[in-house]
Specification:
4 helices, single chain, about 35% helix
């Protein structure tokens, strides 16, 4: 994915990759590069879910969002919008036209849309 983006979609940007098989040092180096702006686009697995605080991250795209529950989507969405700039989180489903999303997942998405925090009191 990151290689395709680097070569075909965003050749003018530096793209980084972050995943769970990287060493702690590699992850930290990648995150420092992203935080400093040396990397403008970060492609990541859900390893990004916890403990990442990059104020200038303003867009998150979650592919196959139907695979996640409300708590995990909330954690992922929380990685953007930590600075003063408007942020966006896009949920992309891989469900085909002839399949249906579960009522539970639709409810989960509605709850995220209805709330700034991703959960209700």
């Amino acid at each position: 994915m990151s290689e395709h983006l680097r070569k075909n979609v965003f050749p003018e940007y530096q793209i980084g990759l972050l995943h769970g098989r990287m060493t702690s040092a590699e992850k930290e180096e990648t995150m420092l590069a992203f935080s400093s702006g040396a990397i403008q686009i970060l492609v990541s697995t859900t390893v990004i879910e916890v403990g990442v605080d990059v104020a200038n991250a303003t867009l998150m795209i979650i592919e196959h969002a139907e695979r996640f529950g409300l708590a995990q989507l909330h954690q992922l969405r929380g990685r953007v919008g930590r600075g003063s700039v408007q942020s966006t989180c896009l949920l992309i489903s891989n469900v085909r036209n002839n399949q249906k999303l579960s009522a539970a997942w639709k409810s989960c998405v509605r709850r995220m849309m209805d709330s700034d925090s991703g959960s209700r009191s």
